[in-house]
Design a protein that fits this description.
Elements (H helix, E strand, L loop, with lengths): L5 H7 L5 E4 L2 E2 L10 H13 L6 H4 E3 L5 E3 L8 H17 L13 H8 L1 H7 L1 H17 L3 E4 L22 E6 L2 E11 L6 E4 L15 E6 L5 E5 L15 H4 L3 E12 L3 E4 L2 H7 L7 H27 L5 H26 L2 E2 L5 E2 L2 H26 L9 H5 L4 H7 L7 H15 L2 H12 L4 H11 L2 H12 L6
Parallel strand pairs: 1-10, 5-8
Antiparallel strand pairs: 1-2, 3-4, 6-7, 7-11, 8-9, 9-12, 10-11, 13-14
Helix pairs in contact: 1-2, 4-10, 5-7, 6-7, 10-11, 10-12, 10-15, 11-12, 12-15, 12-16, 12-17, 15-16
């Protein structure tokens, strides 16, 4: 079977899914003005798979001789791990440097399930089998798999089982012969134009009373009784001049509502297993952070390029104080690149023999990238000043009544008003728009908040060596 192309992807979304945006039911997500731009962006990604330059990056031939998607190939060798980086970089370079959800990161929990066969088999031998069947299905069907990470949570001072409304966390309400019945909701990016979602258990105290919430499964996103409640889009009109990012790359975030959705047993990764959830939940990021860092690098590079562009236009690019600010953006980008390279070079071998990035280095990189992103945006905001929130729109540039004034006062030397406005509009989208606000929030909270990222670093760090060095200097012995 050939890999999916853009046209086939569009057709695959006409599947009866229940999507709501701006208070109305969407008849066709491929044509709705708020969703179509991202459908078209994903279609470009699918078409990229057929570009001769990237044929080996996106495709591989499986043991049955069938061409499959590398997006969903487990990293069994160091070349596989490198290929995942190259694949993500190709998408960010060729399609968009500011998109976050396109399947490469959201499949990685299935790699963890492949790695933890022995643990899964202790609870139910179907769990590992189900995960591997889905991995194979994704490779062959070339679907867009997103995830379901975050519950509404309700009163956060209470455990899931203590909520006034028990649906504030996604839960199992019934186990039947044909599957489990799910009620609740999850927030997720891109769900309304994806094919399926890997729904993860909520991070919480895995006490026996929370057993109903200790569930993981994969669900087709057109499943009966499943609804997509989409947030409002970040732009008023799809104008690529005024809104160069949000008009094309506004990844619609969705509340996926499970209104007693039946999940057949073959789609269940585990159900009502709090001990298993506690043992495996943190591992779900073991390969995911590689994709996160690649995205962070692309965004950092975009911030650098925009800073260079606007300071070049204003004639300030040779001023030492300006160069110092730009160099901080450059240092941020290069540090992320170093984390990516080092985690790959110092890769580890997992329990089942798969290759994964060095977890300590990778987790440190994730903490660094996410916790410093807002400060980098602030540097760009400082460099561009207030003009980026005061510029006229394209209509003013072209109107006979206003064009002369706009072209006179927004021109700088050989830089025309149109050129300058294009640069300022990009800077505005990165620093002062609702799109920029969402981008900052996503960088900090995607999949897990900073505290959880920090705990992942703490747990993956080899503390023994550092402790022994300090103890030796202090003349102490290390206690186990």
């Amino acid at each position: 079977m050939a890999l999916m192309n853009g046209d086939r992807y569009r057709e695959s979304l006409k599947d009866g899914r229940q999507v709501f945006i701006n208070g109305e039911r969407v008849d066709d997500v491929t044509t709705h003005p708020a969703i179509k731009p991202m459908v078209d962006t994903m279609a470009r990604l699918y078409d990229l798979q057929h570009d001769e330059r990237y044929k080996d990056v996106f495709g591989f031939v499986d043991e049955e001789g069938e061409l499959c998607s590398r997006v969903y190939k487990s990293p069994d060798t160091i070349d596989d791990l490198r290929n995942r980086r190259e694949m993500t970089a190709a998408i960010l370079n060729e399609v968009s440097p500011v998109i976050d959800r396109f399947g490469d990161e959201t499949v990685t929990p299935l790699f963890v399930m492949k790695d933890r066969k022995e643990l899964l088999d202790q609870y139910d031998v179907r769990y590992y089998k189900n995960a591997m069947n889905w991995l194979k299905k994704l490779q062959k069907k070339n679907w867009f798999l997103t995830s379901g990470n975050t519950d509404p949570k309700g009163d956060r001072s209470k455990q899931p089982y203590q909520q006034d409304d028990l649906d504030m966390y996604t839960r199992v309400v019934e186990e039947r012969e044909d599957g489990i019945v799910i009620r609740g909701a999850k927030f997720e990016t891109g769900a309304c134009y994806a094919h399926a979602a890997f729904v993860k258990p909520t991070v919480g105290a895995w006490v026996p009373q929370n057993a109903d919430y200790a569930v993981a499964f994969i669900v087709p996103l057109n499943a009966p009784n499943l609804r997509h409640i989409c947030r409002a889009p970040h732009y008023e009109s799809p104008n690529g001049f005024d809104k160069p990012l949000s008009s094309r790359f506004d990844e619609i975030d969705t509340l996926i509502v499970f209104d007693d959705v039946l999940i057949p047993w073959e789609n269940v990764i585990f159900s009502r297993k709090p001990e298993l959830a506690a043992l495996i939940r943190q591992d779900l990021h073991n390969w995911a952070s590689q994709g996160f860092l690649n995205r962070a690098y692309a965004k950092a590079d975009t911030l650098v390029g925009t800073a260079l562009l606007v300071t070049q236009h204003t004639g300030l690019s040779d001023v030492p104080a300006i160069r110092e600010k730009v160099s901080k953006l450059m240092g941020y980008r290069e540090a992320i690149r170093a984390f990516i390279s080092a985690s790959e070079a110092e890769h580890q071998i997992s329990a089942s023999g798969m290759v994964m990035p060095n977890l300590s280095i990778q987790n440190a990189g994730r903490v660094y990238a996410s916790s410093n992103f807002f400060d980098m945006v602030q540097i760009l905001r400082d460099l561009i000043g207030g003009t980026a929130v005061m510029q006229p729109d394209e209509a003013m540039l072209n109107s006979p009544a206003t064009s002369a004034d706009v072209k006179k006062y927004f021109r700088i030397g050989n830089v025309s008003a149109e050129e300058r406005l294009r640069a300022l509009n990009l800077a505005n989208e990165l620093t002062a728009s609702s799109f920029a606000g969402r981008m900052c929030a996503y960088a900090m909270f995607a999949e897990s908040p900073p505290m959880v990222q920090a705990m992942s670093l703490y747990n993956s760090y080899d503390r023994k060596g550092s402790l022994e060095r300090a103890a030796r200097l202090a003349g102490l012995s290390v206690q186990n």
